[in-house]
Each structure stands twice: as structure tokens, then as C-alpha cells.
Specification:
The protein has 91 residues and is an alpha+beta fold. The chain has 2 helices and 3 strands; from the N terminus they run E-H-H-E-E. Strands 1-3-2 form a 3-stranded antiparallel β-sheet, with no helix packed on it. Helix 1 packs antiparallel against helix 2.
Length: 91
């Protein structure tokens, strides 16, 4: 059963949607085969790993700000519905 705790704004939802899209793209790129020298391949993989780390940081930062803004529980997983913007618990 879903217990709704609040709802994010359209801007907050759009922000997380962009973070998730960019993160998904970067994670896909890790598995791509890259042509070029070994040095170029290492640079590409390093850049992708850095990008993933940056977007994971932004995702965590987004959740921390949402948890504080909406006074959400810190020890219980809270989920976001991208369809409605609702913040909810699965009970």
C-alpha cells in the first residue's frame, strides 16, 4: 500500500528527471565500445566514470534537500512518482 507524504513542485520533478536521464545515459556509455588508442579509451572511460559520480552526487543532494524541505523520514526509503510528483512510502 502506498502512503503519500507530499508532492514535489514541477521544477523539482523536472530537475530529478534530468538528473536520472543524464545518469542513465552515462551508465549506458560505460558499456560502449570505443575506437581509438588505449589512451583515448582510458580517457573516455574516466570521463564517463566522473560523469556518473557527478550525477550520483546531484541525485543524493536532490534527495537530501527534498527530505529536509518536506520533513521526510531519514531512515525509511521514500519514493518519487515521476507521473504525479508524489513522495510516498510503500507500506
Amino acid at each position: 500500500m502506498r502512503k503519500v507524504l507530499g508532492q514535489v513542485t514541477k521544477e523539482e520533478l523536472d530537475s530529478m528527471d534530468l538528473i536520472k536521464t543524464k545518469l542513465g545515459t552515462a551508465e549506458t556509455m560505460v558499456n560502449m565500445s570505443v575506437e581509438g588508442s588505449d589512451k583515448d579509451k582510458k580517457l573516455f572511460v574516466g570521463a564517463v566514470i566522473d560523469t556518473i559520480g557527478n550525477y550520483k552526487f546531484l541525485e543524493k543532494d536532490w534527495w537530501n534537500s527534498i527530505i529536509n524541505k518536506y520533513d521526510l523520514p531519514k531512515d525509511t526509503p521514500v519514493y518519487l512518482s515521476f507521473g504525479t510528483g508524489e513522495l510516498y512510502l510503500n507500506e
